[in-house]
Automatic annotation (TrEMBL):
Belongs to the iron/ascorbate-dependent oxidoreductase family. Residues 147-253 form the Fe2OG dioxygenase domain. GO terms for molecular function: 2-oxoglutarate oxygenase/decarboxylase (ethylene-forming) activity; metal ion binding. Keywords: Ethylene biosynthesis, Iron, Metal-binding, Oxidoreductase. Pathway: Alkene biosynthesis; ethylene biosynthesis via 2-oxoglutarate. The keyword Iron applies. It comes from Shewanella gaetbuli. This is 2-oxoglutarate-dependent ethylene/succinate-forming enzyme.
């Protein structure tokens, strides 16, 4: 299996992109409309924030899940026992955001959401008819004005050598949501699991945009689009001293959206969060 980078502006980009999502659960776009300058600015601003004491004033609220999640409470992926080596911040437009970071991060949230709606329309257009029939409403409609769509700013700190045995930056997992949009991080490490079971690097040239299928679209498409396992491995050599910042946007449907005969978006999310131990 190979992940090809697709030129967003090529005449056949939509078709090739959707083929890639069907084959691998991932699609990589170059030449896309997200402003790289904005992404770089956000990486720098949030790197400073994570290295400041201010982050502790924004400790996440368990009821609403917005704010700062320190490494000590960071996620343990489903089926794993060791915590990931990361800290992160959950941005929702209705949630708490440090004043000096608000403007740029909300501009990014907006831009990435607009692109997501277009990419969901591509996915719908190139879904086989029997698959498209299963969508209860247009895919792009599912996320319209959703309050659940989550922008996570991740900081993987430099490795100090005292990390728990077996811990990696992000253990193998699948995303819960419909699709995820992720600008290539400032450092490598993201890998995806192939159908054959081996791990390959996601082409993470700076400026690429990575899109992956989450469990909710796998559910809504009855498996046509696979929610593929991915992970972030630890850096080697001198890269160990470098932080890695990344910025996944998890597109979540409105809660009442019907995904399948079994699930609405809300019932699905609750089931998954219970499994993860995030809620009781
Ligand atoms: O940091 C990355 O590149 C990926 C992060 C990720 O997969 C996640 O937070 O779900
Ligand atoms: Fe993920």
């Amino acid at each position: 299996m190979k992940l090809e980078t697709i030129d967003y502006q090529a005449p056949d980009s939509a078709k090739r992109f959707v083929e890639s999502l069907h084959e691998t659960g991932f699609g990589v776009l170059s030449n896309h409309p997200i402003q790289q300058q904005l992404v770089e600015k956000i990486y720098q601003q949030w790197y400073d924030f994570f290295n400041s004491e201010q982050k502790h004033e924004y400790l996440y609220k368990p009821e609403t899940q917005d704010g700062f999640f320190p490494a000590s409470v960071s996620e343990t992926a489903k089926g794993h026992t060791v915590k990931d080596i990361k800290e992160y911040y959950h941005v929702y437009p209705w949630g708490r955001i440090p004043e000096q970071l608000k403007q740029d991060i909300l501009a990014y949230y907006q831009q990435a959401n607009t692109l997501a709606a277009e990419l969901l329309a591509w996915i719908e257009q190139y879904s086989p008819e029997d698959v498209a029939q299963k969508y209860s409403i247009a895919l792009s409609k599912m996320i319209e004005n959703s309050q659940k769509t989550l922008l996570r700013i991740l900081h993987y700190p430099p490795l100090k050598g005292d990390e728990e045995l077996g811990a990696i930056r992000a253990a193998a997992h699948e995303d819960i949501n419909l699709i995820t949009i992720l600008p290539a991080a400032n450092e490598p490490g993201l890998q995806v699991k192939t159908k054959q079971g081996d791990w390959i690097d996601v082409p993470s040239d700076f400026g690429n945009l990575i899109i992956n299928i989450g469990d909710m679209l796998q559910e809504a498409s009855d498996g046509y689009f696979p929610s593929t396992s991915h992970r972030v491995i630890n850096p080697q050599g001198t890269d160990k001293t470098k932080s890695r910042i990344s910025l996944p946007l998890f597109l979540h449907p409105n809660p009442e959206v019907v995904l399948s005969e079994r699930h609405t978006a809300d019932s699905y999310l609750m089931e998954r969060l219970r499994e993860l131990g995030v809620i009781d």
